[in-house]
């Protein structure tokens, strides 16, 4: 296999996306729930950031806000140093040229009525390649597919649902490869994919970052995965970041009680998985 | 060697699709579990591990059909029994089954105690209510479940609590074999740990005599079961103790699977994950030769045309590959 | 798409429904070629002529005859002549005249007549028999004698100058005409209605009109429901609240009452078939709107819609390419049901006399209305309403069958 990847440090690059006091409140009065509670973050250019949290921690709500699919109730998000303005449709579209996403469920990420070529062609058109010649477009699509180890020639006239889950997620990455956004938000892209395909996808995401220098925000519940892949991790509990920092520091020397518990609760291979700490009556 | 609690011999089952095509989901699986031991089944989705769990109960309903093979629990063959007999004499006492979504199977209009009554009365129709309650309370206390759970409805319990309750209720008759199919996959890590601890206590206290544990999460499997077998395309490709399987996998598929383990431990960051390209074969028409040949980096033409039998090696281990063990170890060493 | 269609036609339920509906459509299309003309033309002067073939008597007399000697011709003639009432009356006469008939079978025409001619006498005055009754028996006797006796009927004309009868020709019992050579034979398989109109012709034309009414009503209801459902579901917020408020108002007011009120206020003269269809469509869109809305809400949060947004697609494009295709199968199913219920609503309205105006085109509902107004159901003229009911049932059945078939294809949980 390929030799271990050389890890460059991206954590002190220029700021790409940051937030201050970002909050999302759902509902009113009695039914009010605070999904994201005054969080601050600084994501740098080229940084591979993981946001780790269990279900209900607010990580998906935060990701929707980062993508501009949800408005925040409070606080401000800065994009490339300037306050982000997505108040109009045109400005939103402008913002979305800089940020793209890969979602958890590949089976619901594709429009089942569109063929694979049209998905990729759409990306080329979005990047202003509408006027390119047919040959040039095919060349671009072939390049994008070979980046994710798919053969474009075999995919034309096929529908996404004819592929396996892993292949579909790779196609998603090919899409990102064509779009080349500044930021990629990957929301649990491997949680519905088999372990064997997972490695391939993670590898491709790292390649993508190394090649284009894009910032990747990786949302996951799997702290082992976050540790393996990211430069920086943010640990999220009940809508707040309880701890953040370099992956090595946070995972190997956790400070927050929640992080410690999370790490101790995950089954491990080399260390003993201590079941004696479990209090069955705790719930 | 301990007493053999569960023995499966050359079990074959199939699904029949709506278009009357046969899908051979479990194709010649054999293994045994001794008393007090647990066996884990690993494999990617679609490899037949959940079908194996369903087939184990000796209780078949369409689209699943039994073809051949034996399932022997504590010396008693249950494979040829009719569904009614299975329900009355096997389920609950001999074998209990917990699927991933078990916690969602609780009828929301009933209190938990009703399910306990159902389970006990299925085998002893004259059981007294007070006795049942006493029995349930005792067992719940042993397993660390609060007694007031019995008088609650399923919706009042958290996901982890529901799953533990289901496990406690379905093992109340102390079955000889517990089949747990991804019992903790839908839960967060803390609840998962509680479920595992409870399963372990069930084993230690002798309420279940043996366990077949199915999951795609290898670190979990490593920590839960004594032995692990890896399934691929309806067949077992390798068997061995948990430690051997994780640190010394022999079959190329197991090797790939173990190479994709990610845990938050020092050293993980530096490793390179193993990736296995391709997709599993279509089980409507399984390949003639080795089923993994299409995706195997070491496959030769011979692999594609000759089926491989399970070959024993080491201490009670076996694998299904034409390459010798030493050769494979050497190949992995040099990578 | 192709695959889905193949699956749809694989469903036996859909196929049966589709074939029935297609046959109905084919009949509507082909029948007028065989029987052209205005379906509302009153061809009969009387009301409710029985179904059957009508031979012009005048033309039959002027058609060359063949002589056929058929052994059972007399018997048949007598059978036709002697109604059951007559037979029972004859038995009554025997009774009151004190004739012992033994165990006579009144169906046995020969024995009955033999007994009759042997015993009947017009002079006999059985006790308690009214004059009118006696005259009835005389008439009966005369006609029976005639059938027995006269082998020839004479046809006479009246001489215009003298007023004397002039013999034109004779007709014997053994004279037959070939029905194919008679100039005017009218087949009325379903007879005529109260206005003397050919029911079958009217029915075919009415089925066509009713299906068109159903289609227009279905299109109107589906369009309104789809548009409002899409807007409410996708845009959400205030738009959703307003649209759902209107929808709920329409849902709680029984749509049939609304339909009656609107139809009544439009007035008979303005109510053409298409106006009625639009009114029906306008009162039956609420369920489509509600269910489209709920489907769109669940689709709105699907990742492919989010991805489409991130790709900068416009609202219209997202609705057209990422939402509509996903609910298309559902909308088609709802449309089929709307058509079916549109046809039924028209029938109900017309039955109440609030349907399309009566002079232009027949509809299934109007035919029922006429049959009811002229008491077809009490005077035994089943052909005036029963075929109409059967047609409505058949259309409705075929459409619902198609809907169920589609449902099974698109809802895997319903597959057996």
Task: Name a few traits of the molecule.
A: 283 residues, alpha/beta, 2 domains, 6-stranded mixed sheet, 4-stranded antiparallel sheet, B: 335 residues, Rossmann fold, 8-stranded mixed sheet, 11 helices
What secondary-structure arrangement, pairings included, does this model have?
The complex is a heterotrimer of chains A (283), B (335) and C (416).
Chain A: E1 15-26, E2 33-44, E3 48-53, H1 59-67, E4 74-79, E5 82-83, H2 89-96, E6 99-102, H3 106-109, H4 116-126, H5 134-147, H6 152-155, H7 165-179, E7 183-187, H8 195-212, E8 215-220, H9 223-229, E9 232-237, E10 240-246, H10 247-252, H11 257-265
Helix pairs in contact in A: 4-7, 5-7, 7-8
Chain B: E1 4-16, E2 22-34, E3 38-42, H1 49-56, E4 64-73, E5 76-77, H2 83-90, E6 95-98, H3 112-121, H4 129-142, H5 159-170, E7 177-181, H6 189-204, E8 210-214, H7 218-224, E9 227-232, E10 235-241, H8 242-247, H9 252-258, H10 301-305, E11 311-313, E12 317-319, H11 325-333
Parallel strand pairs in B: 3-8, 3-9, 6-7, 7-8
Antiparallel strand pairs in B: 1-2, 1-4, 4-5, 9-10, 10-12, 11-12
Chain C: H1 2-10, H2 12-34, E1 52-55, H3 57-61, E2 66-67, H4 73-81, H5 84-97, H6 109-119, H7 131-149, E3 152-158, E4 165-172, E5 175-176, E6 185-188, H8 199-235, H9 237-252, H10 255-266, H11 273-283, H12 286-300, H13 303-310, H14 315-351, H15 364-373, H16 386-410
Antiparallel strand pairs in C: 1-6, 2-5, 3-4
